[in-house]
Specification:
α5 (164-170) crosses α6 (209-235). The chain has helices at 38-43, 66-69, 81-88, 147-156, 164-170, 209-235, 252-262, 274-287, 293-297, 312-328; strands at residues 4-8, 14-19, 26-30, 35-36, 97-101, 105-112, 123-126, 136-142, 179-181, 199-201, 241-245, 265-269, 303-306. The longest helix has 27 residues, at 209-235. It is globular, with a radius of gyration of 21 Å. Helix content is 33%, strand content 19%. The strands form three sheets. The protein has a seven-stranded mixed sheet with strand order 7-8-6-5-11-12-13, with helices on both faces. It has a four-stranded antiparallel sheet with strand order 1-2-3-4. The protein contains ten helices and 13 strands. With 332 residues, the chain is an alpha+beta fold. β5 and β6 (105-112) form a beta hairpin.
């Protein structure tokens, strides 16, 4: 078998896959025709017979070798990390959104049977599903999410652990005008600026370390809000709430600020390992453990909801400051 890395084309809606064992080979899958693209097969002289069969994420992929686990185990749930997380967050309906707050942030919206062509820097992809159901998604990627908290800890030494960031942020009433744009590796969606560099704006003599820590957490929410704004512009679909997962989702300050700055509710399940849950749901549906997705929706799901708690005027002032800070990253 040949393992592959998938890279998504922003313009064509096609999926380019680079062979892990031979980078000289290039394959392509068209997400609209749901087949390997004949034009690129000819362009790269790739015989169709050498390409793997494409199946739904919830399907029969065979079994494990008996000697590995003492018996054969069916493989019925196979999905990419973020597609699995979207499914694990039970985002089964058009317009459902999840955001993974990890080292980076990955926001996906289920767009149902419509493959929206983004005009605002997002990526069109296929969402995970079972059987013959075809479901699309729009995806936005933030390069530096929770990694900015690691930077505070490991490089600046302002905190001893990631958990301390919440207490530090809450110890001050606001960031006192400080904005941090963690463009340590450029900016991802929706800007896609590889030359942008991280900046700290708005420092005064009264700025302290807790203002900087708070500004770092706020930056994660601002970047996510940029993706939400792009989703609204691309789809016109209403956004009622965001389902949050990933390590940084444990930070209550971050979740509340996300709700405030985006003016939508943020729902955090008690189980934030959504990727693993998604793979399990896909496999369970494929083998008939659950009859349909409605049964999964009825599963107990303890969760915490964060609701917007600032005025529209305050929200506008904060986001205007963020936009000015982002513009400053392009001055280098």
């Amino acid at each position: 078998t040949v393992d592959t890395y998938l890279l998504y084309s922003l313009t064509s809606g096609r999926v380019f896959a680079t062979d892990y064992t031979n980078a000289a080979r290039t394959m392509l899958f068209n997400i609209h025709t749901l087949d390997w693209d004949e034009d690129l097969l000819r362009l790269f002289s790739v015989p169709r017979c050498m390409l793997p069969q494409v199946r739904a994420c919830g399907a029969d992929f065979g079994v494990t070798l008996r000697e590995l686990f003492g018996g054969e185990i069916s493989i019925c749930g196979v999905a990419g990390d973020q597609q699995a997380a979207l499914f694990g967050q039970k985002c089964f309906c058009e317009g459902d959104i999840k955001n993974t707050y990890g080292t980076g942030c990955f926001l996906l919206m289920n767009t149902g049977g419509t493959a929206f062509e983004s005009k605002n820097g997002l990526i069109t992809t296929i969402a995970a599903d079972v059987g013959d159901n075809i479901c699309y998604a729009l995806e936005g990627s933030v390069f530096v999410g929770g990694a900015v908290i690691q930077w505070l800890r490991d490089e600046l030494g302002l905190i001893a652990s990631a958990a301390e960031s919440e207490k530090a942020a809450l110890s001050v009433p606001d960031s006192s005008g400080v904005y941090i744009v963690p463009a340590f590796a450029g900016l991802g969606a929706p800007y896609w600026d590889m030359y942008a560099r991280g900046t700290i704006c708005g420092l005064t003599r009264g700025s302290g370390k807790n203002h900087i820590i708070r500004a770092c957490l706020e930056a994660i929410a601002y970047q996510t809000n940029d993706l939400i704004t792009a989703l609204k512009a691309d789809t016109g679909l209403p956004i009622n709430h965001i389902r949050a997962d990933g390590g940084a989702a444990a930070n209550n300050f971050l979740m509340q600020f996300q709700a405030d700055i985006s003016d939508v509710g943020v729902i955090r399940p008690v189980q934030t390992e959504a990727t693993a849950a998604g793979a399990a749901y896909l496999a369970g549906l494929a083998v008939g453990f659950w009859k349909n997705k409605n049964e999964i929706l009825r599963l107990p799901d303890n969760q915490t909801e964060f609701k917007p708690a600032i005025t529209a005027k305050r929200r506008e002032a904060l986001t205007d400051g963020w936009k000015r800070a982002v513009r400053s990253t392009k001055a280098f």
